Amino acid sequence: MISIKKSLITLQNAQLYINQKLLLDKFSWEIKTQENWTIIGPNGAGKSLLAGLLTQRYNCPHIHFSLAPSQIQEVSFAVVQESLDYEAWNDDSEFLEGGVDKGRSVHEFICEDTYSLDAQVIEKFKLDNFLNTGIKFISNGEMRKAHILRALVRKPQILILDGIYEGLDQDSKKQITELIEELAQSCQIITCVQDSEQIPKNCTHLLCLDKCKIIAAGPRARVQQSREFERLFKSPPAIPSSLPSSYAAPKHIEKSSEIIQMKDLSVVYGDKTVINKLTWSVKAGDHWCISGPNGAGKTTLLSLISADNPQGYGKDFHLFGRKRGSGESIWDIKKRIGIVTTELQLEYHQNIFALDVVVSGFFDSIGLYREADASHLQIAQDWMQTLGIGDLAKISFENLSYGERRIVLLARAMVKSPNILILDEPCQGLDKRNRMALLNTVDFLATNTDMTILYVSHKPEVQVNFIKSHLEFIPEDNKPCSFSIRP
Question: Where is the ABC transporter domain (predicted)?
Fold first, then answer.
């Protein structure tokens, strides 16, 4: 007997306007039962916009659903951001003794008093301790896992996964793959990816996007053999040839002097030790890779260096030759450090132009709350041109793709000519072309400036030409990570 497919979602000449700007035009596509689609395209192609249409995050009159909204679930950067926004809005830390509001536990977030987690799932994925943790205190990989579990208990007919593996170590990818396989037994999967090697095994159909237009669509085998698919990622990446004319060298630090020093430094939250007796120093002009699995303590280490974590006070910890807590202000430190992190990108959802985001780097603010002078604007525009994103200047940051936001934040970090540039998983969310462009750009900056670069990755084998030194967080069973330091 031949199984007859039924239409679940139909877009017929659909148009999507956001802030009066037309982003999708005359867009036609149909999803039927028994089809697992992969939406593929470079950064800015429109993948996340399309995911937002399918989950009705954006309104569109020319789309028909044969499903209830609850039958379509999404795990994406946008959904994670929404859940963190909810926690921030309801945070009562300032009114509580001890100053810490745990917020919703992972279990409360997943079930919301209505749903329940099967005991077999809890045992299979070893969730016992994980479920009692506050949702806002879990790692990047754990957050993705929590959102997939949230989808699992709702028993969706369609699950949309947008950038689900970005920034995860191998163990986290394995756990999430197992969760998705559990879900795939009972629902259809729609995946958004940047590169052909990310296409999942269970994919039956491909939709290729470029500049918010369909380039090719249909059964996987047919589309992968098409010329359109081959051409999708062919354009060469942009590489800067010179620093902006407005570039000013960072505040002078004598070469090889120690700008970061810590001895037996520990960070403890309650009964959990996140960093245990780390002794480490960084000399001006040296470039380091900091690696380790998700949840190892890398982000905590960065928060110490960027002055966002008060646990550096009163310890044997020096920045720029001065002991932390000896009279310097947080802003004295921040003006000498540029930073690009996933956490910053999650926090930065102001509805302002990309140019204003870059200008805000001068003031270390999330948003722009003071008027920038002509020199600020010129430097910001120069860096955007240098990094190949000059055409994004007057586009709202919220309307940019995940990868485009990452490049904008790099420009934001560079405008103040920092002594230290922190790059936390800088290639997360970037397609192959933009990954190469970013790495070539950072290599160019390392070669042509006096900055010290801290490049953070969950991959210990990361290959970046300018990096010669390595701090690795090494997991220990039921213990805090140990450290391997190779200067």
Answer: 9-236, 260-485
